[in-house]
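dude i think i finally got it to work??
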Amino acid sequence: MAILVGVDEAGYGPTLGPLVITAVAFEVKDHEVDGNLWQILKGAVVGATSKSPLHVAVADSKRLYASGRGLRRLEVGVLAFQGCIGDIGDFKRLLEALHCYDEGQLKLYPWYHDMQLSLPLTAAEGLARYRKLLEEVLSSQGIRFVGARASVTSPYEFNKGIDSCGNKALLLFDNCVKLMSSLWEEYPQLEILCDRHGGRNRYATLLSSAFSKCKVNVLSEGPDASSYELRDGPRRLKVSFIIRAEDKHLPVALASMYSKYLRELFLKLFNKYWQERLPGLKPTAGYPNDARRFLRDIDGTKASLGMSDEILIRDR
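look at this
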């Protein structure tokens, strides 16, 4: 058996809200590491193009979610898979389950002081059935959903991270490495699939710096994918950076769904905080153009609260 991991992010480009990165892990048969999990798990899952109400949609989060369509398809997928690990009743418990509830970080942000956001928001009907279906199909195929871990970087930490790393591409890589390292400590043999970071094709130098005690072998480097093998004694990690990985590999697609779902829940709390102080305020998704509108709208209230921009706005 092998541990197959997918890693993807949400919130790399926005001005407001957190950057979220998630790693999801499956235990699969050795020969299924390179297999198509959509096909193997077709009794329970479908891609974005299917509208089947009987299956769990797993796809790039951008294909499942848009603000006008609501969270339901995203939420069904995330909570059905997470339900295979244990019950999640609210946002705080979900963050704890994903090893990313950092009370010390979150208390900097007044909009996160009350994390008691009950879940699910939209997908209560049928969720137990979806989870049961997933459990049955996973079991019948000899596959186990091991779980997920996430990294949440809110604006203050994001800006400090860029100051430390030099740019946000390196910050993204650094946070991905931390997730990889935490999983590698628990599972000595890993296969990791990551969505490619921007236009970068070569990662050997970055990996050698991040895993300084390991031997890094370049397996392949090219315009579509770059793969590396890291060894530390008996421990082995293979990591591949793949263009549009979320369209090619189910674990990466699921990681993108987790990341987007978490970011949207954080933004829900953020918007609620400001709307309570400014009735009628239009919510924001945090992307640059609308963020400028939102910041203009809240400027007077922000000043009256004596709030610093350093907890609100990402520099880059």
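The chain has a mean pLDDT of 95.
im so relieved honestly
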